[in-house]
Proline dehydrogenase (Tetraselmis sp. GSL018), 355 residues
Amino acid sequence: MQGLYNNRVGSILDYAAEADLSSVPNPGVHGNAYLQKTEDHCNLNLNKYLQAISLATHVTKGAGVVAMKVTSLGNPFLLERMSAVPRDELTAEERSLVERLEERMNLLGQCAQNAGVRLLVDAEQSYFQPAIDELALMMMKNWNKEESVVFNTYQCYLKDAYGKLAAHLEASDREGFSLGAKLVRGAYMKMERQRAAERGYPSPIHDTIEDTHECFDSSVSLMLEQVKRQRGQVVIASHNENSILRAMEEMERLGISSQNPGVMFGQLQGMCDYLTYSLGARGYHAYKYLPYGPLNEVMPYLIRRAQENGDVLATTDMEKYLMLAEVKRRMHAALSRATRQLLLPEYAAPRTPVH
Ligand SMILES: Cc1cc2nc3c(=O)[nH]c(=O)nc-3n(C[C@H](O)[C@H](O)[C@H](O)COP(=O)(O)OP(=O)(O)OC[C@H]3O[C@@H](n4cnc5c(N)ncnc54)[C@H](O)[C@@H]3O)c2cc1C
């Protein structure tokens, strides 16, 4: 974190915790009860996020950002139920679990606000997303007063992403909170399409990649308008160079300075470093997502991220090109040093120290 900070790049602490329907016991086959063990695990994760907020405050001196996944704070089966049925159809047990989940999330919101740290609520699979959106909106209403402490994530590969973002902006105007939006293309595309095909409902993903690009870029424009009006803040989370250049041009057109804290750019650690460092060097608020955690949790987490981003990893030609160019440059420099030493031995002699 300190190394990035010295290079004008901020850190987004990303504790490696998440859950899916396959990773916790199904309450339906456990005597219709949600297991206390899962709740205990959520409380442990809550403590990890609280530690991350404290670390972010101390290392990054007022520019700290922490990411969180709602599936690590609430039972995935509960989130799926919350997404599928209205509140009054939940059982008494489920309603009390929802209350505990809201308490955890509000505690994080309050601590983040007190510490001056921003909290990014990650987007996950579409069968959890209505619940995640509802909880993120609740947090934004509670904690985003003058500026955005809590950010919800909008996956622009979804056909309904732009409409949802516009509806949340209307709600923020109506109810007087500042909307924080992290814009991504989305990481679960293959799984979403496969699930839709297997269950026979229309795919929620845009039919073409061009539609996704269009949705992402117009969502960026919409949010930049809000930044201009001081009614929202945005994290442009992408490795797509065209989208980043477009966003920079749009900022210039709207008269938004590169240093405006309402616009942040984010890339994953180890991906497209040339973009992050160039943005940081030009004065933009550039960040790296830093996954961390115990080895047995962080490795499967990273493997899942690599699987989800497989297409992107395979197409980062620019990054490969730049790395190769750097390797060649270093080899060339080493070779010419060695040649000079052979031809001009005095070049290799140790210099007389200056006293
Ligand atoms: C800082 C940061 C935070 C992130 N947080 C989240 C998060 O909370 N939730 C989440 O889901 N993801 C998250 N992601 C991952 C992100 O959603 C993408 O998976 C990843 O960044 C690739 O998109 P891109 O804009 O970087 O790249 P691009 O290089 O533009 O990649 C585009 C990729 O999109 C895919 N694609 C999208 N739509 C279509 C389509 N309709 N047809 C065909 N292919 C399509 C293709 O696989 C293509 O390779 C995050 C990424 C970053 C950098």
